[in-house]
Amino acid sequence: MPVATVLTGTLGLRHPIIQAPMAGGGDTPALVAAVCEAGALGSIGATYLTPAQIAETCAAVRSKTTRPFGINLFVPDAPLPEGIEMRAAIGRLAPFFEEVGLPPPEPPAPATRDFDAQLDAALAGGASVFSFTFGMLPAAAREKTKARGLLLGGTATTVDEAIALERAGMDFVVAQGSEAGGHRGTFAGPLEQAAFEAGMIGTLALVPQIVDAVRVPVVASGGIMDGRGIAAVLALGAAAAQLGTAFLTCEEAGVPDVYKQAILDAHEDQTRITRAFSGRPARGIVNRFMREVEAPWWPQQWSILPFPLQNALTRPLRTAAAKQQRAEFLSLWAGQGVRMARSMKAAELVATLAEETDAAVRRLQPR
């Protein structure tokens, strides 16, 4: 099947647009379904959901649309280092907890995520596409996904990662440029700071290099906010464009209003990569929490715990901050295209993106 039709043709999409899976509640069933109904592909970020919640979320999406949708999980968590000292991290966060009226933070418990049960629920939920990030999906999980007939895709931040995904049998590869909001999908080699820095390749440089290196379709992701960006990555050989930040300011998105407003008010130079919230590098709008936790004068050894411990440690603070509409303590994941964010309904955004893409393509045609 020609590259350009594997996603749009197989799934019957009218537009080569994917709403990025956004674990944590941003991609509500209403958002996912509205994107699907508008002719694009809506996606569920299911990592932080229990198997029962995954089933409920998929059912909620199916109750609103009969169109294909996608679902995403993080790969199983890697073993944590030995001898992690938590006192410094707990002490660093204690003043913030007190400020929002919470009791002192407790040592986070080791992750208890049952990936196999999550996968079973995801595959049984009626999705047509399964994608993953943070590494390589185990072989047994790949085989199970293929046996259920779902299209399978993984996230790459370098050409080598994309080649590894293709060799593992992916149906498509998501090329995540450095501009992208949220967590970095880097996984090749030791996951040290140097590895993540090496994977910070811009979308317009990364996409054509991955397109040249693999035979499967490539989905471009990172900094794409309007039809001009979609047309640009299609011209570079991408089969579709994946947008996350653009959909976070939609009416149906599940993030707090103060988060939406932070995106609408932000400038392109006001995001950066941080480990402060989750322990894993992610791009978000700079706020007080990021500045103070990552202040250069604060000792860094174990003051930020590895993922997912840091994520668990900061969760009560983020939950309280959301209820209190305090953006200074929220993980405001967003990409570098924030100035182009718009407040509208999801269906209207998809239609606008499609019109803008067509207009951009027409401008490039000979007169």
Task: Describe this protein's structure.
It contains 15 helices and 11 strands. The radius of gyration is 20 Å and the shape is globular. The protein is α/β, with parallel strands linked by helices. The strands form 2 sheets. An 8-stranded parallel sheet has the order 1-9-8-6-5-4-3-2.
Reconstruct the topology from this structure.
Elements: H1 3-6, E1 17-19, H2 29-37, E2 42-45, H3 51-64, E3 69-74, H4 87-99, H5 115-123, E4 129-133, H6 139-147, E5 151-156, H7 159-167, E6 172-176, E7 182-183, H8 193-198, H9 203-213, E8 218-221, H10 227-235, E9 240-243, H11 245-248, H12 257-265, E10 271-274, E11 282-285, H13 288-293, H14 309-324, H15 346-364
Parallel strand pairs: 1-9, 2-3, 3-4, 4-5, 5-6, 6-8, 8-9
Antiparallel strand pairs: 7-11, 10-11
Helix pairs in contact: 2-3, 3-5, 4-14, 10-15
Poorly predicted spans: none
Number of helices: 15
What percent of residues adopt helix (DSSP H or I)? 40-55%
Record field, number of beta strands? 11
C-alpha-based Rg, rounded:
20 Å
The order of strands across the largest sheet is: 1-9-8-6-5-4-3-2
Mean pLDDT: 93
